[in-house]
Write a structure and sequence with these properties.
71 residues, mainly alpha
Length: 71
């Protein structure tokens, strides 16, 4: 099973930026001892980073969306 590209352009940049913001939020949550919040933000950050790096999003694929030809 190959991962067909369906994320690109501004969508990809937005996911990368949001992944970075969530990673910083994860660090803040860890430093404050909020382990539950840290876990959630870490998982969200990892998912968005995966989308940005691989240019593939499972939800986009399920919904038939393709932003790989944008900007």
């Amino acid at each position: 099973m190959g991962l067909d590209r369906n994320v690109g352009g501004i969508d990809r940049i937005g996911r990368a930026v949001l992944a970075t913001v969530l990673a910083v939020s994860t660090l803040g949550a860890v430093l404050r001892g909020r382990r539950g919040l840290a876990t959630l933000t870490l998982l969200a950050s990892a998912g968005l980073a995966f989308n940005a790096v691989t240019c593939f999003c499972g939800l986009n694929a399920a919904l038939g969306l393709d932003t790989s030809n944008e900007g």
